[in-house]
Amino acid sequence: MGDESYPECRAQQLFDGFVSAASCRAALWSFSQLTDLLQLGREEPPYRPIRRQLGYWRADALGAKLERRAARPEYQGPSRKTTVRITAGSLKAASLGRITCVVVGAGPCGLRAAVELRFLGARVVLLEKRDCFSRNNVLHLWPFTIHDLRGLGAKRFYGRFCAGAIDHISIRQLQLVLLKVALLLGVEVYINVEFKHLKEPPEEQSPRKVGWRMQVSPKSHALNQLEFDVIIGADGRRNTLPGFQRKEFRGKLAIAITANFRNRNTTAEAKVEEISGVAFIFNRRFFMDLRQETGIDLENIVYYKDDTHYFVMTAKKQSLLEKGVIKQDFADTAQLLSRSNVDQHALQAFAREAADFSTNQQLPSLEFSLNQNNQPDVALFDFTCISAAEHAAVIRERHGH
Asked: At how many degrees (to 10) do helices 7-20 and 171-185 cross?
């Protein structure tokens, strides 16, 4: 079965490579190679012809899981009263069969939105200005999120999904899982493409009607000519879509530190217990001992063992000043935590010392993982302010569109 001279063997190898791909580019490349080999069109979600043509148990198991999800009543369209299995077509029987949606940003929220829109039957185009998933930080998973991801086949893409004592996943692994699901459902994914602004329909609508479009970079990209009905901004704080006023909720100053250390998956590392969340009011002795022995004063700390050893903590300002992490005190938070006012070497030492103490010096090595800039993955930021859009959606009509 390993002979690449047989097309079905090559297809199985490409499918396995796609499922196990460890990067965004690798997943896109292997999926493109697979669809080219099988000569897939856009008539139906790719997982269906892949399942039929491969006759491969791994593809069949994953396809069956997605088929069960697609058969849920909420995806059958407004006229359906009972659960009906969709057996053909590109989910056209569902609610949004004639709608084209653009999703800006391939973070977890953008990818999950794209997946949902495909289940609802829309044509979905997703653009991401980067070509890699590099965020090591780890997310705690709530029960309803675990249930949702299991239903999408997360365990088949990432065998370690929710396999530890505490349920969590790194952001980059979550993105990879959702990207693969999106591709199998038929989401059109474009990397290295940046959304710039919306282009309203022109006043002159003859001889051909022209709807909403967008300006992207590079200017020569075909997406500049794409007409769409819905656009979702999933680009976080950048918030490049106009018309969304934001509101802020600011509380007492809270300074957070995140740190990712290399996980070599040794036996010694496996024995170290995770910390689901320790706060000062629940374990005063721990924080008082930390302060006395190291001079580090924290309000809380969390440790998750994932692709990296991930620590997140809330540090008190005075302690950061005393340890030389923050060079000079300022009343303005932005000035206080500006890059020029933070000693990066002192910050690394602070995070390493806090991690070492909180794990009882059991981690054999505290070498920082590297971030997307090839720098030690440790960050200090303002956790005081939470911002959100005042409205979740805006409806605009211009010249009949």
From this structure: 140
